[in-house]
Amino acid sequence: MTEPRPVTSATATTNEPELAENFGQLADFIALSRERIERALDLWLPRADVVPADLHSAMRYSALAGGKYVRPLLVYATGRAFGADLATLDGPACAVELIHAYSLIHDDLPAMDNDDLRRGKPTCHIAYGEALAILAGDALQALSFHILAVDPALLAPLALRLRMIDTLAQASSSTGMAGGQAIDLGAVGNVLALADLEDMHLRKTGALIRASVELGAFGAAIDDDAVLRKLRAYARCIGLAFQIRDDILDVEGDTAIIGKTQGADLRDNKPTYCSLLGVEGARARAEALHEEAVAQLSSFGRDADLLRNISAYIVRRIR
């Protein structure tokens, strides 16, 4: 296993000026990650002119719709922190992004959140109809596990490849993302305690973010339990912070910028951090989670600076 570099005084701090020094580096890495994931997705996704063409077109429409690509970014940044070649991480990054894309297609359906705008475009079921949208989501989910099983560029030992598959399966399951969505549907119109709200989002949003960090670590052949515990704790914090920022943007964001309907949570009477804590209380909670996330990386040295800055980016993003 590749050990993280020793911590220095420059990396132990959680001060914002220290993090801000590397924001230029983060912007460059975000651009690099976006270029890599879009190229890799284009290669793995079936061509739109291959039968059944309408289904393949719907898959590409949703998976290549742009977006923030935060989950692939975390795969690449975690692997990079431990010395992995980014080319070996393209497959895991695609796998987690395809699960995310499938979840968005299904979340937007009339039976779920009933949204007609995603990433600034008509949602998949608006563009292709409900039946093809459901099938596109199903096919993207299957493709994600196929990639982890057969990707020839993935150099992790077989045992870690199997752990990747299991990690992504658990994160997507009834105890992870799908379970969180079920809890969310059942919570509409109800008031949740903060602990229950956080449990829901640790499943619905947080599980796939934790899986992204773990996939990056496994892709770098990391199997040290102590290192993985710290990475999971970091991922838990940023997963919650990501959802809190989403809740704030639902209140304060601009539909044209965030790429989805502003005010949808209020319209649907959903429990959110803003409804429970108020906007300023939610903002303070997100900042506290960012500080905790950075603290979890204190022993990892400068190699983890990208992960530190991703945490800051998550709580300050505008879309």
Describe the structure.
There is one protein chain. With 319 residues, the chain is an all-alpha fold. It has a single domain, classed as Farnesyl Diphosphate Synthase (Orthogonal Bundle), CATH 1.10.600.10. Helix content is 69%, strand content 1%. The chain has 17 helices and 2 strands. It has a two-stranded antiparallel ribbon. Strand 1 and strand 2 form a beta hairpin. The N terminus is likely disordered.
Portion in beta strands: under 5%
- Poorly predicted runs are 1-21
CATH domain class name: Mainly Alpha
> First CA to last CA: what distance?
36 Å
pLDDT average, as an integer?
Answer: 88
Q: Largest sheet, order of strands side by side?
A: 1-2
How many whole angstroms does the radius of gyration measure? 19 Å
SS element count, helices:
17
Q: What summary fits the major beta sheet?
A: 2 strands, antiparallel
By secondary-structure content and strand pairing, the structural class works out as mainly alpha
In total, the number of strands is 2
The outline comes out as globular
